Every structure is written in C-alpha cells, then in structure tokens.
Amino acid sequence: MNTNTTWTDFLIAEGATIESAGIRFDTPDAGLAPPATVAVPLVHLGMIRSRGEDSAPFLHNLFSNDVKNLSADGAQWNSFNSPKGRMLASILLWKEADGHALVMSADLQPALLKKLSMYVLRSKVKLADGAAETALVGISGSDAAQVLARTGLAVPTTAMTQAAAGDTRCIRLDDNNFLVALPVAEAPGAFGALLAAGATKAGTAAWQLAMIRAGVPLITVPTQEEFVAQMLNYEIIGGVSFQKGCYPGQEIVARTQYLGKLKKRMYHVRVADGAAPLPGADVFAPEFGNQSAGKLVNVAPSPAGGFEALAVMQTSCAESGDVHLGSLVGPRLSFLELPYALP
C-alpha cells in the first residue's frame, strides 16, 4: 500500500482508517449510494516513474501496448506479462515531459520495480518509486467532470487522455471516472477543494466498485500469472497492440488472438450473500464438477447488498448461468452488464 506519511497523516486526520487493503472513512462510503460523485484517495495503488530519453522504447519492448506512439496527452492500459503470456501486472501508463508514469496495484509495486530494473542494462532510463512525491486521487460519478472543473483543474474531454496544469495531471478513464496525480504537498488542499466542489470523500471500496462496473481489472498478488490478457478483456479496453513488435509473452497473446478459441472471459457478477469474497477465489459450475471453472479478480460491496465482482470463467459456464462461488453448493453468481460487448 502507498504509505506516504504526509498524505496518510492528513487522511487520518480527516477520519480515515488505513488498512493493508486500502482506506475507509468513518462515514459510509458515498460511492455505494449513486449517483453521488466521490473523491477516493487511491492508497491501494502504487506508482513507478520511468525517466530518460530511452523511456518510450524501453517500456515499449516490455509492455503489451504501443508506448512509442502514445501521444503527449495520451494514457493507456498496459500489461506486463510472464514469458508464458500470463499477466504479472495491469498498468495505467501516461506520458510525462521527461518519461512516463506507471500505476499498478500497490502490493505488486516493489517487486515490479525490482523486476523492471533488471531490464534497464544500458538503456538511458531511470526507474523510481513515485509514491514519495505523488499522490493519487480517484474521482467517480455522473458529475465528476463538473466537480473537477469547479476546482479549477484542467479536465480532458476524451477517454484515455490527460490534461496537465503545472505538476498536476488529470487522466480521464471514461465518462464518469478520473484519476488525478499531484504533488504530495498539494494533495490535502486539492482533496479539500474537491469536497468543497461537491464530491464526497469515500474509501477504496467505492473506487473498486467503479472500476468493476467499468469492466477494468486490477491484477493483485492473489491473481498474478492467472490470466492471459484477453481473458481479462484487455484487448477490448485498449490494453493490447497487435501491430507492435515483441515483448514478454507476446507470442502467446498473439496466438490467443489469431489462432485459438478463447475459452475464458471476464464477466461482471454479483454475489448476493455470504462473507466478503476474496480476489483469487475459485468459482464452480456443474459441467466442470469439482474442478475450478474460473476465479474472481476484484470484489467490492454492492449498494444492492452482497458484493459485485469481476470474474474470469469458462465462457460455456457463463452462458449456462449456473455458476457458484467456492464450491458447487456455494452462493450462486448472478450476471450483470459490462459497459462493452464481448466478442
């Protein structure tokens, strides 16, 4: 977890409890009562900065997307894969004046920074932990853009683009979800300004629910090396380029796209009852008996009760609709809509 003390001390003074899995406030998460717009300190995310003249080709040769041709105001989803094509990390990447910023799950950040550093060799690139100097805040809701504008921030008008004002960047993920990256020293004032502009402070669960409903997965330690990119619908959300050159796992990802029938996909599901499920939990279906038919990726409390989740599973099981959590007699999953169509 991102634990910059300047930022976290402020949040604790604001009534936050910071836990290993993220942050919660003493008041109920407003994100569970739409259509409120929420401001969420994204302490469950980590950051790596890549700086230097070789930053673009260096990252381009390691990640699934076309980093070289990313525009100055662009942002993109990326994956870093094992040689077997399994995702080691899901990454939000954007361009900066002297390189690039990479955002991933905080529980993966230390190991990922170490692993990426092993590839630097003679490249003119310096990699560093970005959390010491940058705070991340998520803004989610139907009037998120208006709330941001009322604070005086530059607001991008197109999905997966960014707007910069000084050292503060606002990245638009889609119509309702934005990520703001800003210097730690400015974060308390900016957070207060967002609340004054109409946002409600909310914890990690509110952002996780927003991303689940957006169909955007976050790889964490329990789900590392479980999925090929297409199982997570990553090519649908723009996280894979099939025109670029080689990168770790590229052959498997390309083969999955062009030669094989993909047997697993990610779905938006609801678990109506039971204890809070954990990422990585297995799901089961009668046609597979006691063999796992898939896994949960991300989970958040649902305003309708129970929990909503992203779950990767055999497409045949999803089509049958008879899928259960934990065992064949576990809670039955109901299927909810994703904001995009599956092939």
UniProtKB/TrEMBL annotation:
TM region positions: none
Presence of keyword Transit peptide: yes
Keywords per UniProt: Transit peptide
Protein's UniProt name: Folate-binding protein
Origin superkingdom: Bacteria
UniProt organism field: Aromatoleum bremense
Lineage: Bacteria, Pseudomonadati, Pseudomonadota, Betaproteobacteria, Rhodocyclales
